[in-house]
Design goal:
Low-confidence stretches: 292-297
Structural class: alpha/beta
CATH superfamily: Ribokinase
Helix content: 25-40%
Shape: globular
Number of strands: 14
Number of helices: 13
CATH class: Alpha Beta
Strand content: 15-25%
Distance between the termini: 17 Å
Order of helices and strands: EEHEHEHEHEEEHEHEHHEHHEEEHHH
CATH architecture: 3-Layer(aba) Sandwich
Oligomer: single chain
CATH topology: UDP-N-acetylmuramoyl-L-alanine:D-glutamate ligase
Length: about 350
């Protein structure tokens, strides 16, 4: 067991504010939007914000969401990141909102105040069910390796790294090295299919070298699997029809099973939405079913799954139990935008869980 002073779960990532809004089909005609997911300047974020109908604001960023939910579940959690400033040098409004929400959840905070504004991510849900995401990490990109206290990593049982940080290789590699040195497991949530494709070889190398628990949804898992096959010059045929899709999934699962067969790590967790989850570890596959729920919004469900899975892992539950706990808690956020969590609801949920 690790030293219990401080946080068992240490989360490092982008400190941003999520902004959710329901929009109509003609949104592209009156908002300066582009592809389904893109990064823009903070000035462009500001232009979009003033036009949104009834926006809902919440602290965001994958690692911060995990810290917030895990803390509400009773797991001592900490978050390290950079928030932004006003021109006067004081914390801006988004920084204050971010700080308050995580403090209210009981998260131990190490927030560095940057020079740029606090980052923001706008999630627009169209009436046809599709989603447009526009983000500006802004001040969160100012985080450096020197901002991370090594003692916090030494005390933690699990270090959580946001997949959106993978492009900052010096920072990520330093985090991984410190975790490895102190026997701290590392959880990495890939974050998007594009990240999985772009950083596939880097992710593979980290899985081979460090004590990694890798979280992906199905789209991200397929992107990683395909990119790794292509890197090996293997023929990849896109599945068409139910039979081909089923065969593709079986081949992908076998690939991940073999990938984990040589050692305790990596552990690969594929979040499958209404189909539950599959966990690959030690050359075995652990499956966890879930109840299908019609969601209001799914953005926070993956983070909730990770928070509950890791909370169970810290309590030395089996991998199957960890996945079951992840599914159970993820269902609780499907009726709210993002991770605007009802504190009373989650406190009651934590008491009902079989830790």
């Amino acid at each position: 067991m690790k030293n219990q002073e401080g946080a068992d779960l240490l989360c490092v990532g982008n400190a941003i504010i999520d902004v959710f809004s329901q929009v109509d089909e003609e949104v592209d005609s009156y908002l300066p939007l582009g592809p389904a997911v893109r990064h823009v300047s903070f000035d462009q974020i500001t232009e979009i914000l003033v036009t949104l109908p009834e926006p809902v604001f919440s602290s965001g960023g994958g690692s911060a969401n995990v810290a917030k939910i895990a803390s509400l579940l009773g797991t001592p959690s900490a978050f390290i990141g950079v928030v932004g400033s006003q021109p006067s040098g004081k914390k801006d409004h988004f920084a204050e909102l971010f700080e308050k929400e995580l403090q209210d959840a009981g998260v131990i905070l190490e927030l560095i105040q940057g020079k740029a504004p606090t980052g923001a991510c706008i999630i627009l849900q169209k009436s046809d069910g599709s989603t447009i995401i526009t983000a500006s990490p802004s001040a969160s990109l100012e985080l450096t390796p020197e901002d991370i206290p090594e003692e916090a990593i030494r005390r933690a049982q699990v270090l959580v790294i946001d997949g959106y940080m993978l492009g900052r290789e010096t920072l990520v590699r330093r985090l991984l090295e410190m975790a490895d040195e102190h026997g701290t497991s590392v959880a990495l949530d890939v974050g998007s299919a594009e990240i999985a494709r772009t950083w596939a070889l880097t992710i593979e190398a980290y899985c081979r070298a460090y004590p990694l628990i890798l979280f992906m949804n199905e789209a991200e898992a397929e992107a990683l699997y395909t990119a790794l096959l292509e890197s090996q010059k293997r023929d990849v045929r896109r599945p068409v029809g139910i039979r081909q899709i089923d065969a593709f999934s079986r081949e992908m699962f076998e690939f991940f099973r073999e990938f984990t067969a040589q050692d305790i790590f990596p552990i690969i967790v594929v979040k499958r939405g209404p189909k539950g989850a599959a966990v690959f570890a030690g050359g075995r596959i652990y499956r966890s079913e879930t109840l299908a729920v019609i969601p209001l919004e799914t953005t926070g469900a993956g983070d909730a799954f990770c928070a509950a899975f890791l909370s169970a892992w810290i309590r030395e539950k089996s991998l199957g139990q960890c996945a079951d706990m992840g599914n159970r808690v993820a269902r609780e956020v499907l009726d709210t935008p993002g991770t605007r969590i009802d504190k009373k609801k989650f406190t009651a949920l934590a008491k009902s869980l079989d830790w």
